Amino acid sequence: MTEKAIQSLAGTEDRLPPQWTLWHRLHRAARNQFELHGYGELSTPIIEDARLFIKGTGEDTEIVEKQMYSISSSEGEEANNTDERITLRPEGTPPAVRAYLEADLHKKQKFQKFWYAGPMFRRERPQKGRLRQFHQIGVEAIGGSSPLVDAETILLADAIYKEAGLSSCAINVNSIGCPECRPKYRQILKDELAGRADELCPDCEKRLDRNVLRILDCKEKDCREVVDDLPPIPGLICDECTTHYQILKDALSAQSIAYVEDPLLVRGLDYYTRTVYEIKHKALGARDTICGGGRYDGLVSQLGGPETPCVGFAMGVEATLIAMEAESDKSVSQPNGIDVYVVCFDDSARAKCFEQVEALRSEGLSADMDYEERSSKAQMRMADKTNADFCLLIGELELEKNEVTIKDMKKGEQWTADWDAAGEEISSVIKA
Ligand code: ATP
Ligand code: MG
Predict the structure, then answer these.
(1) Which end of the chain, C or N, has fewer beta carbons within 10 A?
(2) Which of 134, 135, 291 to mutate to test the pocket of ligand 1 (most atoms within 8 A of CB)?
């Protein structure tokens, strides 16, 4: 019996060569917009001290409670010491803040804007668009308290999506207040919900005491019905938070950007203050958020730095790609063809053909040939399949005369050229 081949882990994905077109389109759009908006690139390690997330993301969050991949950083007895664990990063925000503090950037220039892109790891139940290794593109504007910075990050995410070719995104915004007003309205929500605990799902029943806000985020149908009867958060926040929210909304409206106020929107992570937002796309089904963000004024001080207001977002790359695929013309995901396919008509000419391929490449043309000793007919079929613009036909006759036959695959024309002039000839036709 043959052994079953080892397969990839649940919730992880391979990305094969034809699957990169939209990926690169998204990343190119992001890079371009980061440059236009003045965000500098930041890269942090994939592994971090587990305490960064326990403290930063928050002990009560789903991520820290259930989703982190952690291992001991020491061996033997010491391995049980929970203070010494390293974690595959589940998100990019606490690492960005750690890097900012570790490089003492707050002492040089408090307000700085960063972007990052890379893999994140969470032990989630794998499903459409939900993976255990997934990718995020994110920004962190560290040190700015103005609601105009909140607006900038939302407009930036929107500009990236527009440049990447997405047109039917929905932007939802809300304000969840600050440490001053949140305890008061949290109590109001608790009081409202106390009498209806039996209508909530078991998780939310527990959340009633521990983190009542998270109930607003629950996707269970019964909980949604209870939540729909609650007073909207923006009616309960303090005057400063209300003003902050109003300036943000005015800045968005001034840009004629379509957004919806969602008074029940909260975000899953503990560190958010005031502004929270999500960008959704209907191609994703029930879990339709492709980008989530907001203000997190408490995180820097929580990680040992000075009081520093911040705002940022994280885009789910795989989720965004599902949206892009749904919106894009299928033909665009076809990779571009190569410039030249070299067809060998005589087996003894293969080494010479290879020299020609290398010469073409060194002249900046993408070129390829057959390495499987196929017939010339099969090689012509490969040239078609690889969508080559030109073929070089090389046989006994060409070798004898030190020539090549060039075939323009689009026009169907063919002519001969000197062996050493093939690249130059083709380049001049391409440029013409
Ligand atoms: P969500 O509520 O959508 O799970 P979150 O609050 O847990 O998000 P964020 O870091 O804010 O976590 O997520 C930002 C975006 O990253 C999400 O909207 C989603 O598109 C994407 N994302 C989050 N978790 C995963 C995952 N396990 N697999 C794929 N994409 C993910
Ligand atoms: Mg989540």
Answers:
(1) N
(2) 134
